[in-house]
Amino acid sequence: MFWDQESETLSRPALEALQLQRLQQTVSRLAARVPFYQQKFAELGVGPDDIRRLEDVRRLPFTTAADLRAIYPSGLLAVEADEPVRLHTSSGTTGKPKAIFFSRNDVNTAADMIARSLVAAGITRADVFQNMMSYGLFTGGLVMHYGAERVGCLVIPAGPGTSERQLMLMQDFGTTAVHILPSYALYFANYLEQKGIDPRKDLKLRKAFVGAEPHTEQTRKRIEEAFGVDVYNSYGLTEMNGPGVAFECEQKAGMHLWEDCFLLEIIDPATGEPLPDGQRGELVLTTLKREAMPILRYRTRDITSVIAEPCPCGRTHRRIHRITGRSDDMLIIRGVNIFPQQIEQVLMSMPQVGRNYLIIVEGLDDLTVKVELSDRGFDGQVEHLAALQNQLVEKLKAEIWVRPKVDLVPPGSLPVAEGKAKRVLDKRSL
Ligand code: AMP
Ligand code: ZN
Question: Ligand 1, atom 20: nearest CA belongs to which residue?
Answer without folding.
Answer: 214
